[in-house]
Specification:
Blueprint lengths: L10 E5 L28 H12 L5 E5 L10 H8 L6 E6 L4 H10 L4 E5 L5 H8 L4 H13 L5 E7 L8 H10 L2 E7 L10 H4 L3 H12 L3 E3 L9 E4 L6 E5 L12 E4 L4 E3 L8 E2 H6 L4 H13 L17 H4 L2
Parallel strand pairs: 1-2, 1-10, 2-3, 3-4, 4-5, 5-6, 6-9
Antiparallel strand pairs: 7-8, 8-9, 10-11, 11-12
Helix pairs in contact: 1-2, 1-10, 3-5
Subunit structure: Monomer and homodimer.
Family: Belongs to the radical SAM superfamily. MoaA family.
InterPro entries: Aldolase_TIM, Elp3/MiaA/NifB-like_rSAM, MoaA, MoaA-like, MoaA_NifB_PqqE_Fe-S-bd_CS, MoaA_twitch, MoCo_biosynth_MoaA/MoaC, rSAM
């Protein structure tokens, strides 16, 4: 479906839970956040109904997110349901990787096509510091398993934070040279827990590119990386993987945004940084059929804003894990 700004909206990101088994410093406080009561979270069947209705509007790509999606009980059933929909040709997941190794083969059998791992450091001690609870080796074995299962492209999402992981950019770049991994440097967004200090810790993609070029020389532009996101990709000469840059702050990519977000409690959110939401849970629980759900989703698409307004500040009381990564 085409929105009011002539963008084709074909990508739905579904947050299946607001719960997470890590406490990353830029995402939530050490004690975590108040969890949404279970009865307020959509059931897996309800998520499936939304996907079916969205597919009637031309949504053909679905990403499962959280919180941490793999902590959701019986999550494989949702993958299996989506995989049976002939209108969906791409099913992916964003995960912190803690539980991925033990679930990887079942996820692939259930329809998973590819995976993004959130990994902000290659140093085990620094990784523990950033995540507060994570064990690097658990995640790394999951990444190796994803490569072995050909869940390509396997991407690593690296939130760039000055004074935290800015000395590791070269290490990530070398990793892309040695392994078929697609490293994506993501500008720190002033959302939730990181909002008060995002400005002081912000590093632009331009600065990261400059640092990498000083060490490795000119980067080669790359256009053949599968995905639905806004990253601009480059490659080191002879590298097996690529380097991507997501410029949410320094260079808006709103003109090409093709996505909708569905929160765990059933709110359709046309823009991550907008406050407008459409209540699908209420419709689902009063028995709305597939056509009515599609009409509600279409309304959300028609009202999708032309661009975000991050420069005006974050006014939502929720953190990223409560909205959907």
């Amino acid at each position: 479906m085409i929105d009011g700004y002539k963008r084709r909206i074909d990508y739905l990101r579904i947050s299946v839970t607001d719960r997470c088994n890590l406490r990353c410093v830029y995402c939530m406080p050490p004690e975590g956040v108040k969890q949404t009561p279970h009865r307020e979270i959509l059931t897996l069947e309800e998520f499936g109904r939304v996907v079916d209705a969205a597919s009637d509007l031309g949504i053909n790509k679905v990403r499962i997110t959280g919180g941490e999606p793999l902590v959701r009980k019986n999550i494989l059933k949702l993958f299996q349901h989506i995989a049976k929909n002939p209108g969906i040709d791409d099913i992916s997941i964003t995960t912190n990787g803690v539980l991925f190794l033990q679930m990887a083969e079942d996820l692939k059998k259930s329809g998973l096509n590819r995976v993004n791992f959130s990994l902000d450091s290659l140093d085990p001690d620094k990784f523990k510091e950033i995540t507060r609870l994570g064990k690097f080796n658990e995640v790394w074995r999951g990444i190796e398993k994803a490569i072995a299962l050909n869940l390509h492209p396997v991407k690593l999402n690296v939130v760039a934070v000055r004074g935290v992981n800015d000395r590791e950019f070269g290490d990530f770049a070398r990793l892309s040279r040695e392994m078929p991994l697609h490293i994506r440097f993501i500008e720190l967004m002033p959302i939730g827990e990181c909002n008060p200090w995002a400005v002081d810790n912000f590093i632009s993609a331009e600065e990261i590119v400059r640092k990498l070029q000083q060490e490795f020389g000119p980067l080669q532009a790359e256009t053949k990386v599968t995905g639905n996101g806004p990253a601009k990709y480059f490659r080191l000469p002879g590298a097996k993987g690529t380097l991507g840059f997501i410029t949410a702050i320094s260079e808006h990519f709103c003109s090409t945004c093709n996505r909708l977000r569905l929160t765990a409690n059933g709110q359709l959110r046309p823009c991550l940084y907008g406050n407008q939401e459409f209540d699908l849970k209420k419709a689902l629980r009063r028995g709305a059929g597939r056509q009515e759900l599609a009409e509600l989703i279409a309304k959300g698409i028609r009202q999708k804003p032309g661009q975000h307004h991050m420069e005006e500040g974050w006014s939502d009381l929720r953190v990223m894990s409560q909205i959907g990564g």
